[in-house]
């Protein structure tokens, strides 16, 4: 990959940078950083000027641009300290799933509004008894005489469900076939009768994710995504999109290297030469890991730019990014001591407190570090696959085996 911008990319970067500078005070206003209405307005502003859904097809409300153009937008947003798009789950996971598996009517109804954050979306996959082993999910969908579906069950860890207008919902429609084969995906109206979202408080102080209960919720058959029993294939589209959006396209995950360097440099002067040398060594190691992540992200971008489907580097990128962010954050805490707890960046955010509290979640969301290591072990290194006790049995039989 050529790391320099081509003339077209440089022109695009200049255009994006000019726009972001012009609207900087709105886009990074610390006073409205956590305000939901302001976050929706920020996303709409970016969308209306062509900076959201850059790679989405024009027919889906996107710009029809290249992965490199999207990466440049991401890099420039990171440069000004943009707090992130509110509808990230919608853009990264739900929208791409509707694009591939939705009907024309669903695409028309949902996609443009999703990109403008007029509707917020969530992804309803994980349950109390199924996370890494997603296909073990139990939320039941039963078809009624009039063709509609009646849903009962519980999801958990659903990011943004308390704000969401719609969600993609993976359900079990047939317990008498192998567990991956009896699933069906739907779009669910999160305001429908019988849907209850309860926020869960995290140790970071935030409450962005929820447990969600479905008590006899009715979904019309026209809101099914893909065929009955094909939910696993539909979910793979979502999961692939999730790895891509978390795998980093040349941007950092969690705690940025540059912010870490600036923080440490500003505070190291007061420390002894020995201590400074130790911190520099550790910082060097963490910095190299972060660069590794960045360049793995570029490999992903290269593959996408050539129209290829990315391989397991998307999983490797997410794993490496999480590990590198952890190294940096731990180093900052060791080097700064108690000061790390109180040190604030210019916009008043406490980088190290947030990264210490948030990184354990990053190591779980979208595939835990252990599961991603399994993927790399099996699909990259060719190691023997894990033994799977539920092979060749129906979902109902595997439940009976586990005594549930
Ligand atoms: C910040 C955050 C946001 C999230 N947002 C969403 C969301 O919007 N929608 C949604 O559906 N879900 C969401 N999740 C849930 C997430 O997908 C699950 O937490 C994740 O898949 C792990 O599942 P689990 O929590 O059930 O843990 P488990 O799968 O029970 O894992 C428990 C432990 O066992 C390990 N383990 C499990 N299987 C293996 C294996 N085969 N080999 C080795 N070790 C293994 C895991 O690594 C982990 O350490 C979110 C989670 C977090 C932290």
TrEMBL record:
Checking InterPro entries in the record gives: Acyl-CoA_Oxase/DH_mid-dom, Acyl-CoA_Oxase/DH_mid-dom_sf, AcylCo_DH-like_C, AcylCo_DH/oxidase_C, AcylCoA_DH/ox_N, AcylCoA_DH/ox_N_sf, AcylCoA_DH/oxidase_NM_dom_sf, Mycobact_Acyl-CoA_DH
> Ranges for the Acyl-CoA dehydrogenase/oxidase N-terminal domain?
6-118
> Any idea where the Acyl-CoA oxidase/dehydrogenase middle domain is?
122-217
What SUPFAM superfamilies does this protein's entry cite? Acyl-CoA dehydrogenase C-terminal domain-like, Acyl-CoA dehydrogenase NM domain-like
Keywords on record: FAD, Flavoprotein, Oxidoreductase
Tell me its cofactors.
FAD
In this protein, which residues make up the domain named Acyl-CoA dehydrogenase/oxidase C-terminal? 229-381
Give the family from UniProt: Belongs to the acyl-CoA dehydrogenase family.
Instruction: Supply the PANTHER family for this chain.
Output: ACYL-COA DEHYDROGENASE (PTHR43292), ACYL-COA DEHYDROGENASE FADE34 (PTHR43292:SF4)
Q: Write the protein's name.
A: Acyl-CoA dehydrogenase family protein
Organism whose genome encodes this protein: Nocardioides fonticola
């Amino acid at each position: 990959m050529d790391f320099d911008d081509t003339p077209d990319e440089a022109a695009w970067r200049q255009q994006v940078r000019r726009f972001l500078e012009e609207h900087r005070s709105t886009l990074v206003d610390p006073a409205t950083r956590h305000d939901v209405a302001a976050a929706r307005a920020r996303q709409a502003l970016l969308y209306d000027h062509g900076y959201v859904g850059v790679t989405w097809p024009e027919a889906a409300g996107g710009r029809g641009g290249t992965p490199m153009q999207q990466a440049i937008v991401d890099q420039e947003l990171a440069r000004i300290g943009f707090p992130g798009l509110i509808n990230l789950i919608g853009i990264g996971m739900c929208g791409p799933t509707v694009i591939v598996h939705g009907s024309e009517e669903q695409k028309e109804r949902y996609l443009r509004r999703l990109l403008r954050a007029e509707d917020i979306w969530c992804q309803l996959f994980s349950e109390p008894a199924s996370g890494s082993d997603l296909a073990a999910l139990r939320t039941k969908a039963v078809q009624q005489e009039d063709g509609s579906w009646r849903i009962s069950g519980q999801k958990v860890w659903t990011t943004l469900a308390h704000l969401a207008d719609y969600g993609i919902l993976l359900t079990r429609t047939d317990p008498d076939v192998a567990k991956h084969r009896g699933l069906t995906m739907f779009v669910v109206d999160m305001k429908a009768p019988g849907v209850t979202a309860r926020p869960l408080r995290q140790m970071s102080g935030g409450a962005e994710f929820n447990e969600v209960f479905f008590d006899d919720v009715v979904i019309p058959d026209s809101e099914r995504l893909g065929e009955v029993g094909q939910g696993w294939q539909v979910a793979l589209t979502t999961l692939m999109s999730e790895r891509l959006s978390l795998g980093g396209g040349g941007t950092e995950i969690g705690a940025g290297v540059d912010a870490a360097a600036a923080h440490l440099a500003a505070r190291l002067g007061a420390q002894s030469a020995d201590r400074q040398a130790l911190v520099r060594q550790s910082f060097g190691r963490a910095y190299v890991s972060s660069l590794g992540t960045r360049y793995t992200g570029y490999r992903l971008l290269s593959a996408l730019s050539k129209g290829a489907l990315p391989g397991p580097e998307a999983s490797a990128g997410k794993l490496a990014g999480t590990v590198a962010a952890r190294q940096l954050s731990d180093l900052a805490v060791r080097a700064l001591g108690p000061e790390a707890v109180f040190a604030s960046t210019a916009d008043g955010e406490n980088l190290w407190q947030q990264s210490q509290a948030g990184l354990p979640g990053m190591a779980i969301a979208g595939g835990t570090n252990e599961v991603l290591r399994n993927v790399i072990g099996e699909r990259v290194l060719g190691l023997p696959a894990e033994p799977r006790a539920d092979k060749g049995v129906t979902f109902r039989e595997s439940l009976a085996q586990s005594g549930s």
